[in-house]
Amino acid sequence: ILLGNTEVGKTSFILRYTEEYYQPIYLTTIGIDFKVKEATLSNNKKYKLYFYDTTGQEKYRSIAVNLIKNAEGVLLMYDVTKQSSFQSISEWMESIYNSKPKNFPIILAGNKIDLEKREVTTEEGEKLAKDYGIPFFEISNKEGINVTEACLALANKIVEQREAEANANNSDNAKDDAKVEKGKKLDEVQTNDKKKTVLNLNM
């Protein structure tokens, strides 16, 4: 899902990636919207990527927070020309971590780098991302800069997370199977020992 304050460019970001179209007119998202696009990831497999666009308005914030619970990854966006949207990142991160573990896939993106009036420097964005231990991109929906790269980076992180969790579950299952097998062998040994003891007593 995409998270961030209102007017940071979440809707135009999704349109740019999924439809290769730039929407210059700002339209407020009410509730949620979603788009789908097929992509080949770093493991050379094709996936359908579902992008959920959420409203950044404060009165609808609870909708976005509820979506986090079922999300597999988040692209968290701010507007480099609005310091307030950058300062809100910590609040969004808190909302994410209230529902998800620290290793949950998150990408931080600073949008509108095509505009000259900047209030957030590249270095500030890089430092914040480093503090949270997450990847960082500066993007431009208008110019198409790093839009595809940010989307694929998030998708690849989600797949890597899935595979890591699957491997961990397989490892736990293998350990459980080993314990069961060990228990069976122990029972067999104990049973055989009892048989031997009975046999010796009857001699």
What distinguishing features does this structure have?
single chain, 203 residues, alpha/beta, four-stranded parallel beta sheet, two-stranded antiparallel ribbon, 48% helix, disordered C terminus
Provide structural commentary.
- This protein is of the alpha/beta class and 203 residues long.
- 48% of the residues lie in helices and 17% in strands.
- The chain contains 6 helices and 6 strands.
- The strands form 2 sheets. It has a 4-stranded parallel sheet, sandwiched between helices. The chain has a two-stranded antiparallel ribbon with strand order 2-3.
- The N and C termini lie far apart (76 Å).
Quickly describe the structure.
With 203 residues, this protein is an alpha/beta fold.
- State the end-to-end CA separation: 76 Å
Helix amount: 40-55%
Instruction: Give the radius of gyration.
Output: 25 Å
Which of globular, elongated, flat, extended, rod-shaped describes the shape?
A: elongated
Main pleated sheet: 4 strands, parallel
The overall average pLDDT, rounded, is 84
Number of strands: 6
Uncertain segments: 195-203
Q: Report strand %.
A: 15-25%
Number of helices: 6
SSE ordering? EHEEHEHHEHEH
If strands are numbered along the chain, what order do they take across the biggest sheet? 1-4-5-6
Class from helix and strand fractions: alpha/beta
List the helices and strands and how they pair.
Elements: E1 2-3, H1 10-19, E2 32-40, E3 46-54, H2 61-68, E4 74-79, H3 83-87, H4 89-97, E5 106-111, H5 122-132, E6 136-138, H6 147-201
